[in-house]
Design a protein that fits this description.
Shape: globular
CATH architecture: 3-Layer(aba) Sandwich
Radius of gyration: 16 Å
Distance between the termini: 13 Å
Order of helices and strands: HEHEHHHH
Number of helices: 6
Strand content: under 5%
CATH superfamily: NAD(P)-binding Rossmann-like Domain
Number of strands: 2
CATH topology: Rossmann fold
């Protein structure tokens, strides 16, 4: 995401006000271990604590790479490039990790994409 953002593009598809949760890779790995060792059977959402709307993600990406704003490609491009089955990526995903946190004690060390992008911001 950062590499493409440096070229002025935010590869975020769908409505600007739709939520796009993210997760730091290390947090996901710890969540898997906790799910195996601590969680009862069930379905859990493992995401950051503060999911952002796509417009907020695009702004955060732009700031991270030193740009004022980024162009977001039209959603039809996703359909052309990845097919109709990838359209689920355009939906708003307002989910919470609260159930998983309560059951296992897990919490993300990187609570939001804002912080995660700052950690990843490496000069080109």
């Amino acid at each position: 995401m950062l590499r493409i953002a440096r070229y002025g593009v935010a590869m975020l598809f769908g409505r600007s006000n739709a939520y796009q949760p993210l997760i730091w890779v290390d947090d996901a790995a710890v969540a898997i271990v906790d799910a195996i060792s601590k969680a009862s059977s069930g379905i859990y959402d493992v995401v950051d604590d503060e999911p952002l709307q796509r417009r907020e993600l695009a702004s955060t990406l732009a700031l991270t790479v030193g740009r004022t704003w980024l162009v977001r490609p039209p959603t039809v491009l996703l359909r052309v490039l990845a097919g109709k089955h990838a359209m689920f990526l355009t939906r708003s995903q307002r989910v919470s990790n609260r159930k998983f946190e309560t059951e296992t004690g897990w919490s993300p060390t990187v609570p939001s994409a804002r912080e995660g992008f700052r950690l990843l911001a490496i000069p080109p």
